[in-house]
Write a structure and sequence with these properties.
Blueprint: H1 2-21, E1 25-34, H2 38-46, H3 48-54, E2 65-69, E3 78-82, E4 89-98, E5 102-111, E6 115-126, E7 129-139, H4 144-150, H5 153-172
Antiparallel strand pairs: 1-7, 2-3, 3-4, 4-5, 5-6, 6-7
Organism: Labilibaculum filiforme
InterPro entries: START-like_dom_sf
Protein name: Polyketide cyclase
């Protein structure tokens, strides 16, 4: 009985230590320059339907089911998806629009586990065309903090963002 108590105490101490050393926030983003005018880029990025055309996760499940609510491209519009185990289930809602410069969404992941993140696009005119920054950020809460000790979002999700930016470039420059 004493040994079991020591084991449980050790596990509790380990979990507490891991929780305190784990990152409490996350932020992943990628940038690309497209040779398209800023107004066309902004209009396309505001469209949840356009986003589905180049989404790296859409290509991971050709049978993904996506439905839309609200007026596409406006605050309050929502896309809801149900996909395979790689894609899961969730929804994205446009929550903020700053004309020709910034779009923010709330990403609500429902399956395989529930979480909420903030997605964003920052757009600016540069000499070569339009620079697009795409990213997501959020806070880690317990017990997710424990997983983040062993998981590197830059390595696991960064390549998806890179693919998405390249696919967006191909899509918008057509």
């Amino acid at each position: 009985m004493k040994i079991l108590l020591y084991i449980l105490l050790a596990i509790g101490v380990l979990v507490t230590i891991l929780h305190f050393i784990a990152p409490k926030t996350y932020h992943v983003e990628r940038k690309i320059v497209v040779v398209t005018n800023i107004d066309s880029v902004f209009k396309s990025l505001c469209s949840l339907k356009d986003q589905q055309a180049w989404s790296p996760w859409g290509s991971k499940d050709p049978d993904i089911i996506v439905d839309y609510k609200g007026n596409d491209g406006e605050i309050g519009s929502i896309s809801h998806w149900v996909g395979n185990s790689e894609v899961g289930e969730g929804e994205q809602e446009i929550t903020k629009i700053e004309p020709s410069s910034y779009i923010e969404t709330e990403l609500r992941f429902l399956k395989p586990f529930k979480s909420t993140s903030t997605g964003f696009f920052a757009i600016k005119q540069v000499d070569e065309g339009t620079e697009v920054t795409w990213g997501f950020k959020g806070n880690n809460t317990f017990p997710t903090t424990l997983m983040m000790v062993f998981m590197d979002l830059e390595k696991s999700i960064g390549p998806d963002f890179e693919k998405g930016m390249l696919d967006f470039k191909s899509f918008i420059e057509k």
